[in-house]
Design goal:
alpha+beta; zinc; 761 residues; Methylamine Dehydrogenase, Chain H; four-stranded antiparallel sheet; zinc-finger; elongated
């Protein structure tokens, strides 16, 4: 919700303090309140210890000397007491008696420009300060407290400048340029003129000479001033700085000058100005607010205030019986309160003092002290900037989410009414404005780009736990991007062939849209529903995007399946070889082995984490669909590799390889015999199974070999003779060398077979 408007920004509170006699003037600095009484007593009060009051009396009686003005530095340590008779006194923080400033005799001081470096200095000195006098002179001095009786507090006194038309210099300030060492400007104000002096100060550290003399010298005959005529009995000059710490005070940012026609105020700019240039920027004359006449009275013109103060956003005007605050942003009176005067003394306000160090404001009457409390001064500033459509500045001054939301919504509405839909979308997305309302706005304008912008920004602002919203918005955005890509393709197809700037621009826009889509998929890949996204991409024919998305998810099964569907088997094998898991190999080897057997086996041979036994179904399918007989059998290639190179001892694989050899269409048994021979006595296949398989497939030589290996030489010879292979029978008859009786019997069988078949003895 908005900041509570019920709390007043300004309020005037009376300080509970009884004065023994009439108050003449006062000032406050660094929580030190200094009061000058009619009886020439000075009350010095530490506001943090209000019960401890220093009562200091001037050396001369009130019938001889009348106090005119009080001045205290930003630290509250140094007090200058000026009198109407031109005698001036100095009171240091630890003193109970003031000392006469003899060099300043017969000088009525109207203003003091204090040195901001006093708070950082280890010396008790004021450092170099400027004094503005009643007769229009600007003096420079430095005051340093001393306990030595014959030593003066003023280390020196130098006349720097006399204004051309002598008048009281009621306002005097100086500031340093932040980026240029020893470069300063001075502002001096009379009732009708404000003077500016810009230049460099001399380095007089340690020699006691004037620091400002070189700055004022060029203006001796060429003064630079702004004149505003008017009838006013009293003028003031105020400067405002955001940071006013005792040890460090930032440079002033703005000024205000009380004139007969109104308050002349503006910004202070520190740049490359030189002698004769102005530091004032965007000055404005603010007329004094008019009073509302009561019944039977008339108001000829606005009353001029007797004092003022400058804050960050307001000018405070003190009148004889009331206080007003005018907002600098819209010139409206935002506060007015009548001062509750005490009876007697012919009560009216005396003045207004600002403690810039602690940012407090004080009003004085002859009998009372009031504190003007400023609470949350910038509370309504955002509203004023919003009315001026200065949205960014308004946002900077918003205090809470409700105010910020209001500003962003107003800014979005403003851009929408201007037809700047994409820009309005960026701001709608940052508000809590109803989602359906905003999307219908852009849908009604048929502006897909604005809708896309709104959804994208809304998506960015969602928290991670808003899973459903993230899924819905990101899916909707994908649909928009896909439609845009289709539109780009359609526009490109309608373009004439060849290179043209328009075609190049379309290509660039399409590429940018594709990159944005890729970024969206990459960012929200874990939030998107996989099946929905795949279906969406397929329905738009964006298989390239689908493949990239699947790769982002690590869903390489989807990629492989796509390439197989497209009959791009080499691509499928490439993906499988780089990203395939054992389960993917087992699933897709049957298909890929059929269409690209050599490449697939080459990939299989590089895999060390496969269980070859799991590939047997794929090998069986390959054997069923194998093409030309004269092509190398890739299953034999793979099994031979894992058996002989990787030394696989799995009997199932050995048996299967044996079956492949045995069932080949060729009648040649060389490969099968080599396999059996290589296995030797440490065979890992089932011999009985092998024998049955060989006999079934008429692999006679292999059967004879198996009988021989089993020691069944008689069966081996019988089988060889039965198939008229005399040589093979003779070879096997010689094998039982350690059994001469068996060898003799085998050779007799061979002889009998020869006689019976050839009748040759």
């Amino acid at each position: 919700m908005f900041t509570d408007p019920a709390t007043d920004i300004f309020s005037l509170d009376r300080v509970q303090f009884d004065l023994s006699t009439r108050l003449i003037c006062a000032c406050v600095s660094n929580n030190i309140l200094v009061l000058a009484l009619e009886n020439n007593h000075i009350l010095r009060i530490d506001l943090q210890q209000a019960t401890a009051i220093d009562n200091v009396e001037l050396p001369r009686k009130s019938n001889e000397l009348r106090i005119h003005r009080l001045f205290t530095d930003p630290t509250g340590r140094h007090i200058i007491i000026g009198t109407e008779q031109g005698e001036n006194y100095y009171l240091y923080q630890a003193w109970q008696k003031p000392k006469l400033l003899s060099r300043l005799k017969n000088t009525v001081i109207e203003s003091v420009a204090w040195n901001k470096g006093g708070g950082k200095s280890s010396r008790p000195s004021t450092l170099a300060i400027l004094l503005g006098t009643q007769d229009g002179r600007i003096l420079e001095t430095e005051i340093e407290p001393t306990e030595e009786f014959f030593r003066r507090e003023e280390k020196y006194l130098k006349l720097l400048y006399t204004i051309p038309e002598p008048a009281p210099i009621a306002g005097l300030h100086y500031e340093s340029f932040p980026a240029t060492p020893r470069k300063y400007f001075v502002l001096a104000a009379t009732a009708s003129r404000i003077y500016q002096f810009v230049g460099s100060m001399a380095d007089t550290s340690g020699d006691g000479g004037s620091m400002f003399e070189s700055l004022f010298r060029p203006y001796a005959n060429q003064p630079v001033f702004q004149e505003i005529p008017g009838d006013i009995s009293h003028t003031e000059l105020c400067l405002f700085s955001k940071l006013q710490d005792v040890a460090y005070q930032s440079v002033a940012e703005k000024f205000a000058w009380l004139t007969g026609s109104g308050v002349y105020h503006g910004q202070l700019v520190y740049g490359s100005q030189g002698t004769g240039d102005s530091v004032v920027s965007d000055p404005v004359l603010l007329p004094y607010p008019r009073d509302h006449p009561t019944s039977g009275t008339s108001v000829e013109g606005p009353e001029a205030p007797i004092s003022m103060a400058l804050t960050e956003f307001h000018i405070i005007l003190l009148y004889r019986h009331s206080v007003k605050a005018v907002c600098l942003l819209n010139d409206e009176v935002v506060y007015e309160e009548t001062i509750n005067m005490a009876s007697g003394y012919g009560e009216r306000a005396l003045g207004l003092s600002v403690d810039s160090t602690h940012n407090t404001y004080w009003v004085f009457t002859p009998s009372s002290v009031f504190e003007l409390i400023i609470h949350n001064e910038d509370r309504d500033v955002w509203k004023i900037y919003l009315q001026k459509r200065m949205y960014d500045t308004a946002f900077q001054h918003a205090k809470n989410p409700a105010e910020k939301n209001h500003i962003l919504g107003a800014q979005a509405d403003h851009y929408y009414t201007q037809g700047r839909y994409v820009l309005s979308a960026t701001y709608y997305a940052q508000t809590t404005r109803n989602f359906e309302e905003v999307t219908l706005k852009f849908a009604g304008q048929n502006d897909q780009e604005a809708l896309k912008c709104y959804l994208s920004k809304k998506l960015e602002h969602l928290k991670a736990n808003n899973i459903t919203q993230i899924t819905l918005l990101s899916t909707w955005l994908i649909e928009i991007y896909l439609n845009q890509l289709n539109q780009f393709d359609a526009r490109l197809r309608s373009q004439p062939s060849g290179d043209s700037p328009e075609r190049a621009n379309l290509e660039a826009e399409k590429q940018s849209s594709r990159q944005d889509l890729d970024s969206l998929l990459r960012t929200y890949k874990r939030n998107l529903d996989r099946r929905t996204t795949y279906a969406l991409l397929r329905s738009h024919g964006r298989h390239d995007v689908l493949l990239d998305y699947a790769a982002l998810l690590g869903d390489y099964e989807q990629v492989i399946a796509h390439w197989i569907t497209e009959r791009q088997y080499e691509q499928a094998i490439d993906v499988l070889s780089r990203h395939g898991s054992p389960s993917l190999f087992y699933k897709y080897t049957p298909t890929l082995l059929r269409w690209c057997p050599e490449d697939m086996v080459q990939v299989l041979m590089r895999q060390s984490d496969l269980a070859p036994r799991q590939l047997i179904p794929a090998f069986l399918k390959y054997q069923e669909t194998r093409g030309q007989i004269d092509q190398p059998n890739q299953v034999i290639r793979y099994l031979t590799f894992i058996i002989h190179k990787q030394h696989n001892r799995d009997p199932v694989l050995h048996n299967y390889l044996l079956s492949v050899y045995a069932t080949q269409a060729t009648r040649c048994e060389t490969a099968l015999l080599e396999f059996l021979a290589n296995e030797g006595q440490g065979m890992h296949y089932d011999v009985d199974y092998a024998l049955r398989l060989c006999r079934k497939n008429q692999r006679i030589q292999s059967c004879v070999h198996l009988y021989s290996m089993m020691g069944q030489y008689e069966d081996a010879v019988d089988l060889a003779l039965a198939h008229q292979d005399l040589e093979l029978a003779q070879i096997n008859a010689d094998k039982p060398e350690d059994r001469p009786d068996l060898r003799k019997r085998l050779w007799l069988k061979i002889a009998r077979h020869v006689v019976e078949k050839t009748h040759d003895v």
